[in-house]
Each structure stands twice: as C-alpha cells, then as structure tokens.
C-alpha cells in the first residue's frame, strides 16, 4: 500500500492509547447484536472462528490457522498481510490495543452463495467527546468458506467483485463495477503512457497489473473488507500485488500508474514527486505537472515565510492534505532531470540517503543550508507575472 495512510484515525488512536496507558488485555471481547443467532450451529461456529481470529494477533504476519491457506500463500509470498483490512486498521499499531479502544461487535453473520459473511462494527465506548465524530472508524465485512471441511476466513474482494467486468489490455487488466461504462480510448492512452515511461527510463516491460475501478467510496471500501471506512483514500496502489484500486477514477490514471511502474523510494516525497512530474497530481491526467506547478506558485507567491520544511513536515496545507508535498517533490525530480538527465533521476530513485536535505543537495546542486528558502523561491518563479 502507498504511504497515504497517515490518517486521522491513526493519529487519534495513537493519542488515545498514549493517554489511556492501559495494559494489553488477555482476551478481546467480541459481542453480538440480537440479529446474530448463535443457537444455530453453523452461525455459532462462524462466530467462534471470527472471535478466535481477532484474538490471534490479527496485525501480525504469520501462518494464522483461521485464514484461507490459498490467500495466505498469495499475500505472504509478497510479504503482505493476508487480511486486507489489516492494512488500514492497524498500520503498525498493536491490534489488541486497537480492539480495546474500538471494541468489535458482530452485527450480522449471514449465508451467501454457500459461504458466510461477517459484519463487524468497531466502536469506542465512553470516548472523549472530542473524538465522537470519528466513531466508529470501521465496519468490516469478512467471508468464511469451507477448506477441507473446516471454515476458514477470506477477503471480500473476490466475493464483492463477482459480477464486475474484466477488460484485458496490453499492460492493464481493468476490473470495472457493472455500472461503469468502459472507455477503450482512455485505456489506449493509459497503455501508451506506460509504454512511454518505460521507453524514457529504459526499463524492461513491466508486468501487467490489475486496475479495480469502483464507482463509489463504499464500493472501494469493500475491496478492503470494509463496509464503512471513516477516513478512506480514493486511490491505493499495491506494488507487490501489481494492483491498483480506485473510486470514481477513469481508465487513464497516469499518477497512480507511475507507482506501479516504479517500486518506490526511500522518501515518500520523491515517489509522489516522480508520479506528479510524469502524471500530474490528479487522478484523471487532465492536469499536468506544469499546470500544477503554476497553480502552486501562484498560491505561495506572496508568502514570504514559507519554507520547504513547512511542506515536508505538512505544517503547510493547501487544497488537499498532500498537494503541496506532491508539487515540491515533482519540482525536486525536475531539477534533478535538468541537472543530471534521466540517468540522474534513476539514481535519485534508488538513493538510500537518509537525510532528505542531503539528498536534495546532492541531486539539485542547491546548498543544503539554502534549501528551505531557495527551493520555494525557485517555485515562485513560475507564478503569473
């Protein structure tokens, strides 16, 4: 998953855990609503399967006995957790702490196409009034199916996309919600963009990838075992899986495609900068890097105190949470290309230098101590006269 997961819920969860300072519980209590009839043997069996899973370190990557073997093999082979909702819910935190703050309540266990689905709400009881608008952060939907006569959990994605329509192209397998009208012209543009980037950087032809095109935020959430996600992202790229999932986007999505061509870099600002330089900051390719740069330059033209650190640390916000950081990153990539060519950009992408200021100075020629104001001054030159 991209590093766009610096979410409000993550911040709140960390704050709550820090303030409460509770000890790790021995057991997570999983309650049910009156709709869940555990007197029915199979429902009771599914409930205990789910309860056991939530008490089995669901944030940890290991051979969990409650999950589908096929899915464990698929995701663990690329070092990803097999439960897609775990990418969003835990994000490096301790699952036991998360589930003590946001207590799981099973709302429904129902049969569907020979499987069962489990709907669970996570709700913070007796929370500080400041956080009530962020409650609940998630409602999950997981499935259970038989594996060698035993019920095992599985992701929702293959179940909720059962009637979605696939379209195969040279580099991309589009998987579209039934209400989406597939546009082959935009798909052709998408493949041409990928081919052009591969040629520009002298790369081997990339492995094709899946592009799931949801029609709404709620449809996108279901690809991650979520019926509801408070702080959702409209586009998520998973390089190890060769997979892109979006909501309301078109077939032509050059910014996100760039993330699937290049594996990623040491610094997120460089990864997003490359994607913005090549594909613009938007998700439809309609806004170019040059347009974005001019817009940003106009917005900060009269700001005499703004520094690169304000953007890098996200103290400065504009239009959306990450927009200034995307443009600043793209500007760094462009300066690198102007000074060192495409080979220089390739070196920048693979450079493991820890300090971002040292990295920028190395590839742009701007002295390290001048970066904060000099970089902003250079960007302001692109504002309207």
How would you describe this protein?
- With 385 residues, this protein is α/β, with parallel strands linked by helices.
- The chain folds into three domains: 8-155, Nuclear Transport Factor 2, Chain: A (Roll), CATH 3.10.450; 165-263, 3-Layer(aba) Sandwich (Glutaredoxin); 289-380, no CATH class.
- Helix content is 41%, strand content 17%.
- It is built from 15 helices and eleven strands.
- It has helices spanning 8-20, 41-54, 69-76, 86-89, 95-101, 157-160, 184-200, 217-222, 254-261, 268-279, 289-300, 308-312, 323-350, 356-364, 371-380, and strands at residues 31-32, 103-112, 115-123, 138-147, 150-154, 165-168, 172-176, 209-214, 226-229, 235-238, 243-247.
- The strands form two sheets. Strands 1, 2, 3, 4, 5 and 9 form a six-stranded mixed sheet that branches.
- Helix 7 crosses helix 9 and helix 9 (254-261) packs across helix 10 (268-279).
- It starts with 7 loop residues before the first helix and ends in a 5-residue tail after the last helix.
